[in-house]
Amino acid sequence: MESMIFDMAERLFRDHVNHGLREAAAGGQCPEALWTQIEEAGLHMSLVPEADGGFGVPASEALGLIRIAGAHGLPLPLAETLVANAVLARAGLTLPGGRLTIAEGGSLELTRSGKALHAKGHLPIVPFARWADRIVTIAAIDGTDHVLSLPVKDLSIAPGQDLAGMPRDDVEVDLALTEADAAPLSRSFGGSQSSDVMRGLGALSRSLAMAGAMESILTMSVEYANDRVQFGRPIGKFQAIQQYLATMAGEASASRVAAEMAADSYDTPTFALAVAAAKSRTGEAAETIGALAHQVHGAIGYTQEHALHHFTKRIWSWRDEFGSELDWTRDLGRAALTSPHDTFWHFITDSTAQGAPA
């Protein structure tokens, strides 16, 4: 099944995601037609259990689609929609279809009037908010986590963008919620607290996307080094460039392993710790790979006509979303300091280590 889903996604993105489409999206044009094809293929439902209308594939396989989307620089909220649909299904809410996005809901205030809930507050830097139909988040009232499905048409959106030109919007919420818009979350993901669920799921999605994008950056850099001739031979023959490429390859490989380990831990007690390791590792690699890729490409890598900047700007933006590597490294440090193990080595080699809440 993994091969079939991955092959489907690879063909779809290879055929339709190109430099022109990424340029148009960075200019504010949502690629509606491509999203229609994604929905027709059912890719946006891959993380949803089969009983709720999904493919019924292991979560780690479904999450692999995010890495593929990152490798193609897909300018659409596929990652966010995958996560949002999974969270909605967990709470027993209707899956609305269309483009969805996610946000950390810790800043929202929920109040109750009879059976109705009212949500009010500010959601900063929400990915693709103005291109989405709904924003899915989690907030708590009376000690109970609730999944909220917020219709974008009823919210106040202040447009913004990240380095790559993708929508990152500020959202003001002041909305009465119906039973179709909110429901208690009876079981959280991997036992995480409500304030950590969306942060963790978002960080996982960014780790996978960065891993995919960095593999594409490495491929582009190797191809350019083999094609670009200087002083009578390809620049890839020079030892300095070879060292750059070797460093990039090591960083990309480590990032993919860390991201896939986090995907394997989805909805398990080790989820928070695995995501912390993945987000901190991929964020660190994004700085190194982005810098070295532009060193290899020279001035052409900074031009609007070259595809490199679409990928480097993405990884530089993603490294700060849903917690930077500094934030997640601190979580790892807290987990290590509160570990019951006698030695640090036992802590880092224990596959069941759960760590401590942030």
Q: Could you characterize the architecture of this molecule?
A:
This protein has 2 domains: 2-184, Butyryl-CoA Dehydrogenase, subunit A, domain 2, CATH 2.40.110.10; 194-349, Butyryl-CoA Dehydrogenase, subunit A, domain 3, CATH 1.20.140.10. β2 (109-113) and β3 (116-127) form a beta hairpin. The strands form 3 sheets. It has a 4-stranded mixed sheet with strand order 1-4-5-8. By secondary structure, it is α+β, with helices and mostly antiparallel strands. It has helices at 2-16, 19-26, 32-41, 59-72, 78-91, 194-227, 239-264, 271-297, 308-318, 325-337, 344-349; strands at 100-102, 109-113, 116-127, 134-141, 144-151, 156-158, 168-177, 182-184, 229-230, 233-234.
Please tag this protein with its features.
358 residues; Butyryl-CoA Dehydrogenase, subunit A, domain 3; Butyryl-CoA Dehydrogenase, subunit A, domain 2; single chain
Shape: globular
Q: Give start-end ranges of low-pLDDT stretches.
A: none
Largest sheet geometry: 4 strands, mixed
Structural class: alpha+beta
Helix/strand order, N-terminal first: HHHHHEEEEEEEEHEEHHHHH
Order the strands across the largest sheet as they lie in space: 1-4-5-8
Count of distinct strands: 10
Give the count of helical stretches. 11
- The Cα radius of gyration reads 21 Å
CATH architecture of the largest domain: Beta Barrel
